[in-house]
Structure formats: structure tokens, C-alpha cells
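Protein fold
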Amino acid sequence: MEEKGITKDRVFELLRNYKKRDMTHRSGRILGSMCTCPHEVGLKAYHMFLESNLGDPGLFQGTKTMENEVIATLGQLLGKSDVYGHIITGGTEANIMAMRAARNMCRIEDPEIIVPKSAHFSFKKAADILCLNMREAQLDSQYRVDINSVKELISDKTVAVVGIAGTTELGKIDPIEELSDICLEREIFFHVDAAFGGFSIPFLNQVGYDLPKFDFSLPGVCSVTIDPHKMGLAPIPTGGILFRDKSYLDVMSVETPYLTEENQSTIVGTRTGASTAATWALLKHLGSEGYQKIASRCMELTKLLSQGIKDTGFQLITEPQLNIVAFTGEGIAPCDIAKLLDEKGWAVSIASHPKSVRIIVMPHVKEEHITAFLEDLKDIRY
């Protein structure tokens, strides 16, 4: 730090130079991220509430009221309006909170959680932080969690089972209904990570898709992760955690004697209200119809991309269930494909189970981007 500060103009000149080095979603060149351009309405709402701290909600009662309304709206979207939860930083914090609630409900020695091999890496963080033994269930031929593998792993140490609604790598929806039945019968906490699928599956079903149940309409589901900063178009960071019953929040609450609330259940203390305001504004502005259009358009472009990849001579790993496409090519490693695409200005990612090039068709991707990408992919193939 220099003794004397520099001018405001110079600060922003330097900031612009750093900004030039960043990729932008708006360019359409970011194809490997589950984040997207935040909607202008969400951005404006976010800026309006930058000083709001939901870690001390008595000081920001309007923001807290909005959070309550957002949680109720998301609960209604996910099959149960009378749910409990918070708008937080993202799927990682949400998944850690869910595993913490499950652990604290049981209070047993050497607790175990069962997650699919396709689960997000946040569960490894949760296991490490919470001293949980994480056991990975195998996947079936469609890259969904194998029910028999889950059954084999369940023991008297199991405190939670996890299912995924929109896997990070392939966008697959696990057999949530079957997992719900198993967990209900055995009285095991069942968490659904719908960080990606939560803002698309319900809206796709509303317009005629036939995607499986994954939410609180299934009695065994205890908690759901849903990320507004993915398909919800909210600014980063904006995540959500919903619980079926308030007792799951209570069991991990700690006393906060010097704040305006007596207890706090979230992992972070100071918690921005800007994310809540942005989500509230977008739910009001876009409504079901707006989100239906967004999800449907992404699926239409996903089909266009999938067919184009096949026409180019590459092979899909699986037919997309949501707006994620994974592919590989004969005689060329996925990492080499990604490197060649990077040289042409495309940022894709690599899936690990199985190894493949992974593309997420987020709302910032347009048909012209798909067309340009396929042309460059054709050059790599031939």
C-alpha cells in the first residue's frame, strides 16, 4: 500500500486494464461454466441492497421479508411452499449446510454420507470440514446413481444420502423418487443437490417435458440445494438451501448474543442481502413464463449443438437430459480437443466420469455462437 492514494480516475483506469484480461459470458465463448450473464433487473436490485447484511436481520427487516418470500416461492416451485431456508453464497455452502444438519440430527460416532460418484466436489469439502466418512455409490449405464450400489453402502453409520438433479458433468437426474422411498423407509436424511437443475427442471416440465420428480413432492426429500446464480440469472454469488422442516435449521443453530437475532444457522455470519434482493426481483420480473422461455431456449440450442457435434463426426457420451453436452472423438483425447478449441478462443471444460469435453448451454449462449463453435470443431476434426 502506498502512503498516498492515487486518483479515482487512475484507479478505474487500472481496473479497466485488469477487466480486459477477463473473459466475458456475453462473448458467447465461455462454454464450460454453469454461470451466466446476470439479468439487468437482478443487477440493479443487487446494487440497491449492497449494504444489507442478513447476518443481522433486525437491522434490515425489509431485506429479511424478501428472503422469506423468496424461500416460500422457491419452495412452491419445488413442491412445498412451507419450507425453511436461506439465500446464501452458492451450492457449496448449501450442500455443507445440508450435511451439517444431517450429522447433527443423528449425533452418532463415525458418521457416513453416501453420495453418487457424479456428486459435486463440495461434498468432499463437507466431509472434510464435518468429519464425515464419504462413501461413493457407483453409476448406472446412463450415468445416474445406481440404486443397488446405494443400498449396499447403507449402514447404521449412514446419516445422509445424496441424489443429484442435474449432475455437474453431464446434467443427469438421479432416480430421486426411488432414493426418496429408500430413505423414507430407513429414516435416513435425504438431500437433493439441484443447484443446476432446480431452476430448469420445473419450468421444462411446465412446457411439456417429461423429466422425473426430484423435489419436496417426494416425502423422503429433506433438503434441496438450488442456485439462482445459475439458470436463475442472479448475480454471483447467489445460492439457496431449503429444508422440509425448521428442526433441520434449529439443530445446527448457534447463539448470536450481540446481534438482532438470537440464533444463526448459516455457515457465514455476515451475509449479503443483495443476493436475496436480486433473486426476489427476478422471480417477480420474469415469473414462470419468463423462466420457461429461458429453459426452453437453452434446450433447443442444446439439441442443435448435439446434432452438430454428431454431424461433425464426434461422439456424444450420452443424449442430453438437460442443457449439458459431453462428447469425445476417436483417436484424439478430450484434453487435446479442449486445447485446440482454446487456441480458437473457446473455453470448454473436461468431464472426468467419463473423460470427455463438456459444454453447458447457458442463457448467454446464442445460435450464432453454436454455429461458430461447430465450424471450429469441424476444422479440428478434419
Q: What stands out?
A: The two ends are 53 Å apart (CA to CA). The chain has a mean pLDDT of 97. The CA atoms of residues 63 and 174 lie 35 Å apart.
